[in-house]
Design brief:
With 437 residues, this protein is mainly α. The chain has helices spanning 8-15, 19-33, 36-44, 56-60, 69-75, 77-82, 89-101, 108-112, 119-133, 138-150, 158-173, 197-201, 203-216, 233-237, 240-256, 269-281, 294-303, 323-326, 332-342, 373-378, 381-390, 400-412, 422-429, and strands at residues 190-193, 220-221, 261-264, 291-293, 317-319, 346-347, 394-396, 418-420. The chain contains 23 helices and 8 strands.
Amino acid sequence: MAYFPEDIGLVEGVKNLTEDKIQQTIKEVISKETGARLRAYLDTCVHCGLCADACHFFLSHDRDPKYSPVGKVKQTIWEMVKREGKVSPGFILRSAVIAYTECNLCKRCSLYCPFGIDIAYLLSIVRRICHKLGVTPQYIQDTAHSHSATMNQMWVKDDEWIDSLQWQEDEARDEIPNLRIPLEKEGADIMYSVIGPEPKFRTQLIYQAAVIMNEAGVSWTMPATPGWDNSDMAMYVGDYELMGRLKRLHFETAMRLKVKKIVMGECGHAYRSVYDTGNRWLGWRDMPIPIIHAVQFYWELLQEGKLKVAKKFEEPVTLHDPCNIVRGMGLHEMLREVIKAFCSNFVEMYPNREHNYCCCAGGGVINCGPPFKLTRVLGNKIKAEQLKATGVKIVIAPCHNCHGGLEDIIHYYKLGMQLKFLGDIIYECMEKSNAVL
């Protein structure tokens, strides 16, 4: 009980465990939900430690071996398999803390492993086991409950969702009189989907997206029903059954509207859940309808001449490469082309692209809530150093979780920097031919 007693989800969850229940659950997950992949990774790892320097937790904690990727594996899934599930409730508690709050599943370590071992996959199995045992941090579990009850992560009610869209349409029409946010438009080219925090806290992003859609002249719509939220904390809790429900509803909503493709807002983990995890859990070989991230969408609009630059953003900017859309999907060059089109002075952060350090919020870590905020902030001192070294005051981060994590780092280390979404820059600098002068 020594670990984070203020987190009721962990403390109360572990009280219900017996060693028999633990062993049975571990064996069930390993025998029925994993296979040769898990065994190959565990058998192949030679403890060389080359993954260590890839981890921001390791670097930020003075190279403490227990924070290295291989150290986290050794303390968790390795022992579970080695002991054939015969571990104590205290072991499960510590494993949950490591898997949920000391690893962002960012996959940077896999780039440096000479065998390409996917350590994020191994720690995800630990989360899956902890979820099935009922030992998860309370805040992220509450978020999963919201998904289950409302099909969005912020407990947004159906009428509140529609009201938010109509409100942003009314606001935007003061600037662009002919602007509309089409609801339930069957046969549109695009269904635009966002994550729960946008109607709850960042409605300006919906406003900006509507302005971009209007100026580009695209045929688009947003659903008025559940299925509009593409976020997926169930994936990070380890509740794959709920993850499958979320992904299925998201795609079925787009298919019901008979759109040609889905465009997702600036979120990283939601993209990961459709290109990597959710679709595989559902057994889909291919996604049932094409889906692209906002970064690719903006890039395509620029290439097609549908998005024009009216002025340049003059203040120097740097870029944080989000793990899931860069290391995961390779959108780094598209991202830079869009930034350079709108910004006069772009300063690279080093290392960058697929080698960039994680924001330390992803992988559901920020959703584990206040009890673990300091874990995140102290676990990413290396990111603060990376940000400070750029010498600029504006950071572009096209991902919601990255904003949350970087805001905490910027505040804690007193960096005096401001964060912007890519859409913020585009909206400010784009041509608006239908705007009221």
